[in-house]
Amino acid sequence: MALSKVAAMPSLTEEETNFLRFANLLIRISPKAVRIVFDKYFQPCGLNVVLTQSKGKLEFLNQRKILNKSQMDLLYPSQGNSKSSDMDLTLMICLLRNLQKMKIEDLLPAAALISEEADLSRIKYYRNWIAHNTDGYIDKQDFLAMWINVCEVNPHVFN
After folding, report:
1. What are the angstrom distances between the C-alpha of 97 and each of 24, 34, 158?
2. Is there a domain that residue 99 lies in?
3. Where is the DZIP3-like HEPN domain (predicted)?
4. 8, 30, 107, 133 — which has fewest CB within 10 A?
5. How many domains does the chain have?
6. What pTM does this model have?
7. What is the pLDDT of residue 6?
8. How far apart are CA 45 and CA 97, in angstroms?
9. Is residue 7 part of a domain?
């Protein structure tokens, strides 16, 4: 179809733009921040040793449907080694919770709680919120509060 015949795209509202900006933060930027924390606890040169030692526990998590087949394939590839750069935020959070015993919560921590675990909990909470949001918009006041809650008060993760 010729470009001139394509209907004009409607412009996004401020609320829709806020949603997309926040989704971008959580989908593209936050995993990089989580990976920094992950690599601190599971250093790349020793990750596969930890995964080998933890195989029974991870298979148990797979049986309980906490981990799925594609995640297990990332952890135990048929060729080569597992790398954090291949993992998404959900898998890294799961490993930090279950192998490092970090207390990463499903609920949004109070803004006054400043720790790596609280920071990761915030990222996890809002990433799940974005993934399950069917509205596709965030008003200006909520956007600012959420953005600050994820970025500006989280020096452990974003700095």
Report:
1. 24, 13, 19
2. yes
3. 47-151
4. 8
5. 1
6. 0.85
7. 57
8. 20
9. no
